């Protein structure tokens, strides 16, 4: 597990930019954290690291899934905040083919089934502008809110 402390949105994006270098087509990134923890900022860093325009990234709260093209891979960005667990089945995210890209999912606790081999990113607000970012790979995400061991 990797742990990073960041003190700005730009620093959070830099962690994601670095992580993006190791991503391959078909990878899934599950982003957990409270509102305002920096999940969408992290996705901006992923987009930049994959070669897509980070300025195009916004929270897909109302459209549910955005696609960002133009980089090494397409970045699919889903925000499940407004859905209940049953609603995610209708989106088919658990089966969504991302063979041509990377899928980043905010609020993965709403998923009805685990996504095997996904990378878990937990963002925690530790002070007004400081974030603790924990990155690890799990074979599945449990139903509770803490996906990574302490």
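^ Assign residues to that structure.
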């Amino acid at each position: 597990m990797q742990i990073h402390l960041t003190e700005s949105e730009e620093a959070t994006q830099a962690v994601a930019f670095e992580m993006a270098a190791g991503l391959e087509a078909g990878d899934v990134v599950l982003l957990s954290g409270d509102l305002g923890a920096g999940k969408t900022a992290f996705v901006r860093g992923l987009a930049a690291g994959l070669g897509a325009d980070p300025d195009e990234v916004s929270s897909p709260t109302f459209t549910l899934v955005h696609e960002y093209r133009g980089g090494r891979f397409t970045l699919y960005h889903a925000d499940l905040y407004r859905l209940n667990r049953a609603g995610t089945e209708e989106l088919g995210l658990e089966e969504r083919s991302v063979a041509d890209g990377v899928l980043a999912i905010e609020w993965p606790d709403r998923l009805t089934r685990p996504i095997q081999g996904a990378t878990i990113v937990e963002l925690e607000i530790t002070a007004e502008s400081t974030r603790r970012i924990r990155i690890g790979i799990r074979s599945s995400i449990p139903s509770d809110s803490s996906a990574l061991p302490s």
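The chain has one domain: 2-134.
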